C-alpha cells in the first residue's frame, strides 16, 4: 500500500505530509479549502462506506470537458460493490474479542477470594459500559478514522466508576504537544441545536451554535457560542462584542481530586508516529483500490447492457456535448 502514498506541498512553507493519491486530487474540489488532509481523507472514506462514492468515481475516471452523458445516465451505469466497507468489516471480524480481564497477582500475595472479587467487579463494569459493543466500534474507527477518543467523566460526585462518552474523531480538530511530544491539550468542536415549541406544538430550530471543548490537565473548559434575538427580523443572530467578534460563554469543569493530574481523555491510536498529532488512517490506502474496482464493475455492467446493440465508434476524433 505504500506505493499509493504521495508527498505533496499544501502551504507556502512547503510542509511535506502524507496523503492518499486520490485525496491529493480531491483537494480544492470539495469547496472547503481550510480542511486538513486528514479531514479530506475521512470525508472520502465516509462517502465510500455509506454508498455515496459516485462523485469520487466521476472525478477520478470521467473527463468532464468531453462528457456527453448526464449525471443521471452515469449513475445508471455506475455500479459499486462497496469494496472499502467490505474490507473493513472483514478486518474487524478477524479482530479478537477481548472480554476476559484478570487482575495481576499483587506483590503481597493477596488471598484468592480478593482476586475473584476484583474480577467480578471488572466484569460488572465492562457490562455496564457495553464493552463488547464499544470494542467493535473501536476496531472499525481505528481503520476508518485513525484514532479513537473517549471523554472520561463521573455522573455525580458520589460515583465510583467512570463513564466514557464517545467523541467523533473528525471533531477533534487539534492537539497541542509538549516538549516531549506528548499531548498537553485537546481541542474538540461540535455544534448544538437550540429548539423551541411552536404554537401548533411542533419543534422548531431557533439557532445552531458551536461548542468548543478544551481538555487539559485536571480540567475541561467549555466555550459555547451565544445568540441574541434580532427584533427587526425575528431571528436569532450570533452575539458580538464592540470589536465585532463572536461572543462565547465559558465554563470550567475540574476533574475530581483523584484525577487532578490527568487529562480526561482516553485515546486509542492506530499508527501514530513520534511527534505527530494524529494517527495515520489505514483505510486511506484503500481509496484508490476501491475506486478502481468500482470502475471495473461499472464497465462490465455497461458492456453487458450494450451487447447486441449497435455501438458508434469514432476514430481520430472526439464527441463534444451538444454537438454531433
Task: Describe what this molecule looks like in 3D.
This protein has 324 residues and is α+β, with helices and mostly antiparallel strands. Helices cover 30% and strands 26% of the residues. The strands form 4 sheets. A 5-stranded antiparallel beta sheet has the order 5-6-7-8-11, with no helix packed on it. A hairpin with a 5-residue loop joins strand 5 (172-177) and strand 6 (183-197). The two termini are 43 Å apart. Residues 1-19 and 27-34 have low confidence and may be disordered.
Layout of helices and strands, plus pairs?
Layout lengths: L4 E5 L6 E5 H6 L10 H13 L4 H8 L9 H7 L5 H12 L17 H17 L2 H14 L2 E7 L9 E5 L4 E6 L5 E15 L5 E14 L2 E7 L1 E4 L4 E4 L9 E7 L10 E5 L17 H20 L18
Antiparallel strand pairs: 1-2, 3-4, 3-12, 5-6, 6-7, 7-8, 8-11, 9-10
Number of helices: 8
Contiguous runs where pLDDT drops below 50 for at least 5 residues:
1-19, 27-34
What is the first-to-last residue Cα distance? 43 Å
Number of DSSP strand runs: 12
SSE pattern: EEHHHHHHHEEEEEEEEEEH
Give structural attributes:
alpha+beta; about 30% helix; 8 helices; about 325 residues; disordered N terminus; three-stranded antiparallel β-sheet
Question: What is shown here, in short?
Answer:
The chain has 324 residues and is an alpha+beta fold. The chain is 30% helix and 26% strand. Strand 6 (183-197) and strand 7 (203-216) form a beta hairpin.
